[in-house]
């Protein structure tokens, strides 16, 4: 009996040590990536002197993929990149609403960059979204469900999928060159990155399957996108939905192993775009693979070329960057 108690105490001690380690390591990542970038984005917005006519909204697929300087130089108008790391349409809605009468007073068009994972059900409330939520909103989307409560108690449980993914990823690539949060926004909210080499096809396939796991529609992010689009249109602004560039390996998975999830996304998007009468720009096949550094993000040159392309979309255009050896 004494040995069993000792073994139980040792097991609890190990579990506590692992829990504390996960809380420290992933807590640092969460705070550095989400809350810190939200604070940075708000500070940049409040310091913005020139009021833009165009805003790009979304997550890092907007933040890193659209160069607002190139968009303006190509005749698209003065622009600001509202995208942020792990950004959500809920957060975009709140920021657009908060700054609509000030820094965004001259905005006439908002481009929403949308990838399939961005509108699926999120089982856990995003950290940055919770900063804007009322108690009623948290209750309405199940923030206080058994799963979220257990996730608050145990970070080991909350980050279980991310831990598994990181272990799996180590087997696919020898080193990770991007931390994901190392580059600050410039004066127009843009964050260009230019790693030496792009991700391998195997890594890209693994990552797109990870973010598409448990795919289901609609969720509260989809509702936020629809709500924001309708509100902007009611105010006389032009809302545009953009399907941003994707590398061929990812497009292949969406047409193959993830075809059911992709059909669900396209059916939903087509129906909602028709209902709201919002234009959709499909740029998924516009950029060549040498423009990407991973499964969703363009290198700096790719973002520059895509920003200029978005000012004057040409369906038959093909953007090549010539960056990889």
What secondary-structure arrangement, pairings included, does this model have?
Elements: H1 2-47, E1 54-57, H2 60-63, H3 68-73, E2 79-81, H4 89-98, E3 109-113, H5 127-130, H6 135-140, H7 146-153, H8 155-158, H9 160-170, H10 201-212, H11 220-234, E4 238-243, H12 248-255, H13 259-276, E5 280-282, H14 300-311
Parallel strand pairs: 1-2, 1-3, 3-4, 4-5
Number of helices: 14
Rg, rounded, reads 21 Å
The coarse overall form would be globular
Instruction: Measure the end-to-end span.
Output: 65 Å
**What is the H/E order?**
HEHHEHEHHHHHHHEHHEH
Q: Which residues sit in consecutive blocks of at least 5 with pLDDT less than 50?
A: 172-182
> Structural class from helices and strands?
alpha/beta
Mean pLDDT: 80
Major β-sheet annotation: 5 strands, parallel
Query: How many DSSP E strands?
Result: 5
User: What amount of the residues lies in strands?
Assistant: 5-15%
Helix content: 40-55%
Query: Spatial order of the strands in the main sheet?
Result: 2-1-3-4-5
Summarize the structure.
The protein has 325 residues and is α/β, with parallel strands linked by helices. It contains 14 helices and 5 strands.
Main attributes of the structure:
50% helix; globular; single chain; alpha/beta; 325 residues
Describe the structure.
This protein has helices at residues 2-47, 60-63, 68-73, 89-98, 127-130, 135-140, 146-153, 155-158, 160-170, 201-212, 220-234, 248-255, 259-276, 300-311, and strands at residues 54-57, 79-81, 109-113, 238-243, 280-282. It has 325 residues and is of the alpha/beta class. It has a five-stranded parallel β-sheet with strand order 2-1-3-4-5. Helix 4 runs parallel beside helix 11 (220-234).
């Amino acid at each position: 009996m004494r040995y069993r108690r000792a073994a139980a105490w040792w097991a609890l001690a190990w579990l506590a040590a692992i829990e504390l380690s996960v809380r420290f390591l992933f807590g640092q990542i969460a705070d550095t990536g989400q809350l810190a970038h939200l604070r940075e984005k708000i500070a940049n917005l409040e310091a913005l002197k020139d009021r833009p006519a165009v805003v790009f909204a979304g997550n890092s697929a907007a933040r890193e993929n659209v160069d607002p300087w190139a968009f303006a130089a190509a005749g698209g108008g003065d622009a600001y990149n509202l995208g942020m790391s792990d950004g959500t349409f809920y957060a975009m809605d709140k920021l657009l609403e908060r700054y609509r009468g000030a820094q965004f007073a001259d905005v006439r068009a908002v481009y929403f960059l949308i990838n399939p994972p961005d509108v699926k059900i999120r089982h856990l409330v995003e950290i940055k979204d919770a900063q804007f939520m009322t108690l009623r909103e948290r209750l309405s989307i199940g923030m206080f469900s058994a799963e979220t409560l257990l996730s608050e108690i145990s970070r080991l449980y909350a980050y279980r999928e991310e831990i598994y993914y990181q272990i799996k990823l180590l087997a696919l690539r020898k080193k990770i060159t991007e931390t994901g949060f190392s580059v600050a926004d410039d004066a127009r909210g843009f964050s260009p990155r230019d790693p030496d080499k792009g991700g391998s096809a195997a890594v890209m396939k693994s990552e797109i399957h990870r973010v598409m796991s448990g795919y289901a529609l609609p969720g509260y992010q989809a509702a936020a996108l629809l709500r924001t689009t309708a509100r902007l249109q009611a105010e006389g602004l032009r809302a545009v939905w953009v399907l941003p560039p994707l590398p061929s390996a990812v497009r292949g998975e969406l047409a193959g192993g993830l075809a059911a999830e992709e059909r669900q996304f396209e059916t939903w998007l087509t129906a909602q775009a028709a209902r709201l009468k919002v234009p959709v720009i499909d740029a998924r096949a516009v950029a060549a693979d040498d423009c990407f550094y991973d499964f969703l993000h363009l290198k700096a040159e790719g973002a520059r070329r895509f920003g200029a392309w978005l000012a004057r979309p040409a369906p038959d255009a093909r953007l090549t960057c010539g960056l990889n050896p």
